[in-house]
Specification:
Its EC number is 3.2.1.40. By secondary structure, the protein is of the alpha+beta class. It has 16 helices and 48 strands.
């Protein structure tokens, strides 16, 4: 056995994060020699030193210790590093102890010695701020550690003694600045020198101060001044401390960054840069004094945001010389980040980079970015330099170059930038188009998981739209390890909700509406969008099994349903949601006006369905948290809504009065119709698909559930048809046209390669990438079980289809590696391969199988399990097998009816 993936609050070795609730988790992996299948007991030790000589907590050997989320009874001290390790005892007697992990607390409740400071010049001029200090040699010899606690608005980049501190960018990130502001902690022990030292901080506009919001936004969104707060704490071996804190003795000067903005990019004039400005040897005698200031935010707290980093570097694949005479780099992949380049131009030369997603008529194109300039301008100083922006990011595949005398591919590097999330899932099939579709969804997640789950990374928007975030959450949790990322987003959502009497804004953080921004004046309270309040917490619980994370978000869930119920009561108490603005099935193809983004499904029907669904989720969450009265209350509310919907929207025989794909899909997915009427709705949905030429017409609401509902209700072949369609409208239509991310619209690009609309047309919009959830759960068969969350128990139920010869998924779940795949052989036999991790149980369901014909790892399987360590049972036309930790190859010839069903397609 091996104990690995030790995480603190779902983070690996977190430095300076908010740790008000300590949650420890780990994974135990089996090895070839491991006989144990389950954790019999475990022990957690926490120490003040890496050798564990100074234990501060010892759980002792405990049975039933939860490796998904263990909370030790310990009082943490501020600014302290703790080391921890886990020992696991297996049920067959093996014992394994992990390597040490660590976490380090931030300032916690300690008061700040530093004060907010601001440059003393025009607030539109980007500042450099610095402080020179001394660390005498005798004290430097006694240095134990050094940390900087820092935040700034809008964005900051920290240097110490001429070196950039850390490898993250765009700090302090994007959050609801009005209500909370997070600070970061950096370990600078190796950068502090004996004698003279200097701290340097550059500030940029970012989300806080720059142009941002609807209709292009406007500057000074949250505040109109640059400001900095910092403390360098040098700790000596005897425990004494030297603190260098922001105060009026710090100095400032104009930065060579002449402009920065999230939408418009960055202008940097190297002729105005100050060489070695953050080093101790720099002469700052002509710099001006900073001024004390105040920042209007309700509280300052340690970080929750994952660091934003360069997660990959890509070289351009081609230099394109366009018919318009342009020089354009093609990076071969639509991505989020920027280009780093080598500059060798003469002094005063303007190097101009413009970023775009697509070419039109073989020329560079930016019109779909609307007002976003998306450019990087660099004025060379005549010296060789490696250049990248500091305070912006772009969504792009193509980069237009101007001012470069000799363009060489090797001089340019595409920096892929997003929050630091580990990829956990992958899918491969026999169809390269399906494989590319999976990658497109993964790249869409990478490009839009930049501190908040944004809608798009390129145009003048880039907001945390709640609807996109909730429909994609299950897919996100397969693709990447996402609980900490979504938890921070839910903190923002809760802060916004508390100021809206339970309602949830369209975007989180909320964007204050501008004149004529459209939708409504309040910009909150839309069904499916606001239901992020219930869907995301429940999704996190089912996928990661952290009950305390669910508990911390329960009030958010409850308050959202209470808000809807108040709206219901104010409009007659019909147990329907028939008031207010709703996006409905946004961008569906069945609306009356093909130019309108509103779909054909009654928006109040969708609102009422989500009213019911969210009430169901609150009832489920209450039951998990043993809030039994609330579970009964919200369960009853859901039943009342369901009854009202049946009366309002369905005939007595179960026919949907709203004849759209989305209406029927939502009814089935959200369990709105009685069991005896489900088959009628399924049959009607299949008939509607045939009426629509077996093509989808769904939008943001119907699409995420469409294939799930079909496969769960006996129409798996129809789900595969929708997946594998490659003409408009379909997922593979975009793939065949060369898409490398998911589009906002089904026809974002027309068949002739021309872009269909410039007003609202992103080529990196991940919502429709939610099909990947179906690919994991039904094509490949990996399904969580809510009653044993975090994949402590799960179902393996792949649903093969002969239009593919194989499909397989690999998923590093919170409980360990799960693999599930299938292959159809030329003679019709089926082979399934499964990997089940330690301390878990999986129920494998084999379609169209006969018990006597099934072999497991080459041995015959029977009800008695005579030749196998696993046993199975016949369940109708399927065989069910319970599997514990191990790897399995299962083979059989499926029933004749199964083969015929495939051939008919």
């Amino acid at each position: 056995m091996r104990v690995v993936h030790l995480r603190t609050n779902h983070l690996t070795n977190p430095l300076g994060f908010q740790l008000d609730r300590l949650c420890l988790s780990w994974v135990t992996e089996s090895e070839e020699s491991t006989s144990s299948k389950f954790q019999q007991s475990a022990r957690v030790e926490i120490a003040a030193d890496s050798h564990f000589n100074q234990l501060v907590f010892d759980s002792g050997q405990q049975q039933h210790m939860d490796s998904l989320a263990y909370t030790p009874d310990i009082e943490l001290q501020p600014r302290t590093r703790y080391y921890w390790r886990v020992t696991v005892w297996g049920d067959a007697g093996e014992v394994a102890t992990s390597e040490a992990a660590w976490f380090e607390t931030a300032k916690m409740d300690e008061p700040w010695q530093g004060a907010w400071i601001a440059p003393g010049f025009d607030p539109d001029i980007h500042p450099l701020i610095r402080k020179q200090f001394q660390l005498p040699a005798d004290l430097a010899a006694k240095l134990a550690k050094a940390r900087i606690y820092i935040t700034g608005v809008g964005l900051y980049e920290l240097e110490l003694n001429g070196s950039k501190v850390g490898d993250e960018y765009l700090a302090p990130g994007y959050h609801a600045y009005d209500y909370w502001l997070q600070y970061q902690t950096y370990d600078v022990t190796e950068l502090v020198a004996s004698g003279d030292n200097a701290i340097g901080v550059a500030l940029g506009n970012g989300w806080y101060k720059g142009r941002f919001g609807f209709e292009g936004g406007f500057p000074a969104w949250y505040g109109d001044q640059f400001a900095l707060l910092a403390e360098l704490v040098v700790t000596l071996q005897d425990g004494s401390e030297i603190v260098i804190a922001t105060d009026p003795t710090w100095k400032c000067a104009p930065s060579p960054v002449q402009f920065s903005g999230i939408y418009d990019g960055e202008h940097y004039d190297a002729t105005k840069q100050l060489e070695n400005w953050s080093s101790s040897s720099f002469d700052d005698s002509n710099w001006t004094a900073v001024q004390p200031t105040a920042i209007a935010s309700e509280r300052l707290q340690a970080r929750l945001s994952l660091p934003i980093k360069i997660m990959e570097e890509r070289k351009p694949v081609e230099i394109i010389y366009t018919p318009a005479g342009e020089t354009v780099l093609d990076f071969g992949q639509n991505m989020t980040g920027w280009v780093r380049f080598k500059a060798t131009a003469s002094k005063g030369t303007k190097l101009h980079l413009q970023y775009g997603e697509i070419l039109q008529n073989d020329n560079f194109y930016q019109d779909n970015l609307r007002t976003a300039k998306a450019e990087h301008i660099y004025i060379a100083d005549g010296l060789p330099a490696e250049v990248q922006p500091k305070f912006t990011f772009f969504g792009f595949r193509y980069v237009k170059l101007q001012g470069f005398a000799d363009v060489k591919l090797e001089d340019f590097t595409g920096c892929v930038v997003h929050s630091e999330l580990a990829q956990t899932g992958s899918i491969e099939t026999s169809d390269p188009l399906v494989n590319r579709l999976f990658l497109n969804a993964l790249w869409g997640q990478r490009g839009n998981f930049l501190d908040v789950p944004t809608d798009c990374p390129q145009r003048d928007e880039r907001m945390g739209w709640t609807g996109d975030a909730q429909v994609f959450a299950p897919t996100a949790c397969f693709n990447m390890y996402s609980p900490a990322f979504y938890n921070k987003y839910m903190v923002d959502l809760r802060e916004e909700q508390l100021r809206r009497n339970g309602s949830v804004p369209f975007t989180v953080p909320a964007i204050k509406p501008t004149q004529g921004a459209g939708f409504t004046d309040t910009m909150d309270g839309s069904a499916a969008w606001g239901d992020a309040a219930t869907v995301i917490p429940w999704t996190l619980y089912v996928n990661y099994g952290d009950k305390e994370l669910l508990r911390s978000q329960f009030d958010t869930m409850k308050d959202w349903v209470d808000y809807i119920q108040r709206v219901d009561e104010e409009n007659g108490g019909k147990r329907l949601w028939q008031a207010g603005f709703h996006f409905g099935d946004w961008l569906a193809l069945d609306g009356k006006d093909p130019r309108s983004p509103f779909g054909g499904t009654d928006a109040h029907y969708i609102a009422s369905a989500y009213y019911c669904y969210s009430a169901q989720l609150v009832a489920k969450a209450a039951a998990v948290l043993e809030k039994h009265e609330l579970a009964a209350q919200y369960g009853q509310l859901a039943e009342e809504i369901k009854a009202a919907m049946m009366q309002e929207y369905f005939t007595p025989n179960g026919r949907s009065a709203i004849h759209t794909q989305t209406a029927m899909v939502v009814a089935l997915f959200m369990d709105l119709v009685p069991q005896q009427q489900r088959q009628r709705v399924i049959s009607d949905l299949q008939a509607k698909l045939r009426e629509d030429r077996m093509h989808l017409t769904t939008g943001f609401v119907g699409t995420p559930y469409l294939c799930l509902v079909l496969s769960e209700n006996g129409a798996n072949d129809d789900a595969y048809t929708l997946l594998l369609n490659d003409d408009y409208p379909s997922w593979l239509y975009a793939v065949k046209l060369g898409a490398t991310t998911i589009w906002e619209r089904w026809n974002s690009v027309l068949a002739d390669g021309s872009i269909s609309d410039t007003g609202m047309n992103s080529l990196n919009h991940y919502a429709y990438g939610s099909i990947v959830q179906w690919m994991y759960q039904h094509m490949c068969g990996i399904n969580p079980v809510a009653e044993a969350p975090g994949y402590r128990k799960f179902t393996l139920q792949p649903k093969p289809n002969s239009r593919l010869t194989y499909a397989k998924a690999s998923f590093n779940s919170p409980s360990g590696l799960i693999e599930s795949g299938w292959r159809i052989h030329e003679d019709g036999r089926l082979t399934f391969t499964f990997t089940v991790p330690f301390n878990t149980t999986a129920e494998a369901k084999l379609p169209d199988a006969e018990l006597a014909a099934v072999t497991v790892n080459g041995a015959a399987l029977s009800a008695a399990g005579a030749k196998s360590s696993v046993t199975g049972k016949q369940q109708g036309s399927d065989v069910s097998i319970v599997l514990t930790a191990g790897s399995y190859e299962i083979e059989y010839a499926p029933a004749r009816s199964y083969i015929e069903a495939q051939v008919n397609n």
